[in-house]
Amino acid sequence: MADLAQIGVSGLAVMGRNLARNLARNGFSVALHNRTSARTKSLVAEHGDEGTFVPTETLEEFVAALERPRRVVVMVKAGAPTDAVIDELVPLLDEGDIVIDCGNAHFADTRRREAALRERGLHFVGAGVSGGEEGALLGPSIMPGGSAESYRTLGPMFEKIAAQVDGTPCCVHVGPDGAGHFVKMVHNGIEYADMQLIAEAYDLLRDGLGATPAELARIFAEWNSGDLESFLIEITAEVLGHTDAASGSAFVDVVLDQAEQKGTGRWTVQTALDLGVPVTGIAEATFARALSAHPEQREAARAALPGPSAAVPVEDRDAFVDDVRKALYASKVVAYAQGYDQMAAASAEYGWDIDLGAMATIWRGGCIIRARFLDRIKDAYATERPASLLVAPYFRDAVAEGQEAWRRVVAHAARAGIPTPGFSSALAYYDALRAERLPAALIQGMRDYFGAHTYKRVDREGAFHTLWGGDRSEVDG
Ligand code: NBP
Fold first, then answer.
1. Which of 23, 151, 358, 458 has the most crowded CB, counting CB atoms within 10 A?
2. 59 close to ligand 1 (CB < 6 Angstrom)
3. 134 among known catalytic residues
4. Out of 159, 191, 200, 284, which one is annotated catalytic?
């Protein structure tokens, strides 16, 4: 009988295929399975020389080809297909085997699946995998959840195939059950915010300065050599510098301005609402995509709604470019601070004990939000957990240094009629967080007036209610 494979991958579309190749290239023997066996055959035909593959046609054959405890990676479309594969797989497995869902599952589904498989003596690992097609092949950032026991056998393999930065793998055990998929979801949410902020910076410079895409490509390329250095800034320069072959126009000008989404940004916001964590940056980014995708409404508004009565000139172009850079950086700190708050809140809610600094470490390579910036976040969590990333000394000072520029940019955008929901809401969040007093006191007063919801006082303990409809005396609530 042939040697048993060390790991199996079921689901060989772009992601599964590349993950299987990555495993094989790193010296692991990989059993292959896909519902439609043509994908299995084409993988072996095209890349069979990259390592040891064991192609199989049926799930029974696939399971029989694996050494025990079995490690079975499921890389199929998230949702019902994942449940279908798990349901078919589970009766074929033995106690102690590990099923790893590397798809983009909702963390609540992962919690449900983990509990169901645990009942049957199986480990279920929901692993977030970032970096798209290329990451899966060359080294993704991997965020595995599930039991610590399953990580002991799986971790070394995943750490080997993950991206490596300064000799450290971009993979760590995030925490039990759905922790890995939760962190991957927030990662994607932050990615939405990051992209929206970059898009606003582009819009400010394009509209506010009349800069051409080619000029902007140079500006973003320059920004990429400073604090903003990141994959997303790098590809922004590339996209802006690209010319459409068919029309000869700048590529960005021939692309329809309606952003699409697959849903992880929406999940992040929905979950944040449940946890009571303000993730305004991610929410604004998600809503900005939604707004862009309503052409009829935009058409009607364009015809009906006036903008500012006069153009707002920029007096010093270089100074404005630098202001926008600083505003982008400060807004980005806010978006990350909020995402980190969301992970901290979920960690407390579900008892995950997530090491937040380690999340920055594993996002430094292999994923879409990889950036120089993440080293600073890692440092911020090295010794203590700051109340907010914004108050960690490095970020506090960086944002303080840029805040006047940030205010000028948001004011300019408002006066010039350039929509900057990300920049503006980030600044509002910053100001709300640092405010001595918030108008929440007035909200409490109104709630007590119409609903007798009671309020607390600044000067003594307890809950109170004012008899608004009577003599307006105060009683205990
Ligand atoms: P898709 O999400 O396009 O899924 C295609 C795979 O699912 C094929 O192998 C297909 O089998 C299989 N499948 C389906 Br559809 N229904 C099935 C069922 N009922 N039973 C068994 N298999 C079924 O593939 P992908 O783009 O490679 O993504 C895989 C996972 O990775 C997804 O969860 C995705 O969200 C996640 N992800 C994707 C990216 C990315 O950049 N694409 C990045 C990070 C994570 P078939 O060949 O027989 O139709």
1. 23
2. no
3. no
4. 191
May I ask the CATH architecture of the domain 184-434?
Answer: Orthogonal Bundle (1.10)
State if residue 86 touches ligand 1 by the CB under 6 angstroms criterion. no
pLDDT digits (tens, 9 = 90+) for 241-260: 999 999 999 999 999 999 99
User: ω into residue 306 within 30 of 0, thus cis?
Assistant: no
Cα 297 to middle of ligand 1, angstroms: 34
Q: Up-side HSE of residue 213: CA atoms within 13 Å toward CB?
A: 16
Q: What is the pTM of this model?
A: 0.96
Report how many helices (DSSP H) and strands (DSSP E) the chain contains, helices first: 20, 11
Cα-based distances in Å from 67 to 62, 91, 144, 418, 445? 11, 17, 21, 59, 66
Q: What is the CATH number of domain 7-173?
A: 3.40.50.720
CB 240, CB 214: distance < 8 Å? yes
The residue to which tokens 């990989």 are assigned: 30
Instruction: State in words which class domain 439-476 has.
Output: mainly alpha
Residue 191 annotated to the active site = yes
- Ligand 1 within 6 A of CB of 103: yes
